[in-house]
């Protein structure tokens, strides 16, 4: 088994030490580097080639949001998990829109942080449907009016089947649940998700969910997620 290569980014040395102790004890995780500020991230990623970056948001020189945006613009971008003390923070939302695969709270139990790293490394987001909906509801009050128009223009590129899959992803449905709902195989669902990501220039399912929310597709669908 190939170990997951993990980079830790946090300006608090005690937090880094705790995370290193916690995550370094997992047989399938290798901590390949640590950074105290976002301005160190690009060079460390070049040198250590991590699979996942656990990224603090608030840092003194270059914050985690800026560092995440820079990383996700790279062709070989590692997955990013945001580390925060806030459940529904505007900066968390901006990080998710920039391509972070999810976030974990700093007081999350150690086993859950380890599992979050594993899930992201496997290509799965680390946001439950309930948390995703709460974040999107938080965003709704602050979103500019043009966001819906722009989102609707983007989703217009999808065909009817892709649109159905995108809405189901937005509700937080798994591939298996989507397959059962739309009478297709799980492999076909995965193909549709990949096409949606490519057509809309998105990084992951979290961004699909945010875009369907912005476009008003979940309101039109009317169903609640799991």
In short:
This protein is of the alpha/beta class and 226 residues long. The chain contains twelve helices and five strands.
Q: Can you give a write-up of this model?
A:
By secondary structure, the protein is of the alpha/beta class. Helix content is 54%, strand content 12%. It is built from 12 helices and 5 strands. It has helices at 13-24, 41-48, 64-72, 90-98, 110-121, 129-140, 146-155, 160-170, 175-182, 186-200, 205-214, 217-221; strands at residues 4-9, 29-35, 52-56, 79-84, 102-105. Strands 2-1-3-4-5 form a 5-stranded parallel β-sheet, with helices on both faces. Strand 1 (4-9), helix 1 and strand 2 form a beta-alpha-beta unit. Helix 3 (64-72) runs parallel beside helix 4. It is globular. The mean pLDDT is 86.
How are the elements arranged and paired?
Blueprint: E1 4-9, H1 13-24, E2 29-35, H2 41-48, E3 52-56, H3 64-72, E4 79-84, H4 90-98, E5 102-105, H5 110-121, H6 129-140, H7 146-155, H8 160-170, H9 175-182, H10 186-200, H11 205-214, H12 217-221
Multimerization status: single chain
**What is the arithmetic mean of pLDDT?**
86
Poorly predicted spans: none
What characteristic shape results from the CA principal axes? globular
Q: How large is the count of helical segments?
A: 12
Please trace the helix and strand order, writing H or E for each element: EHEHEHEHEHHHHHHHH
Class from helix and strand fractions: alpha/beta
Largest sheet: 5 strands, parallel
Strand fraction band?
5-15%
State Rg: 18 Å
Percentage of residues in helical conformation: 40-55%
Order of strands across the widest beta sheet?
A: 2-1-3-4-5
DSSP E strands, number: 5
Report how far apart the termini are.
33 Å
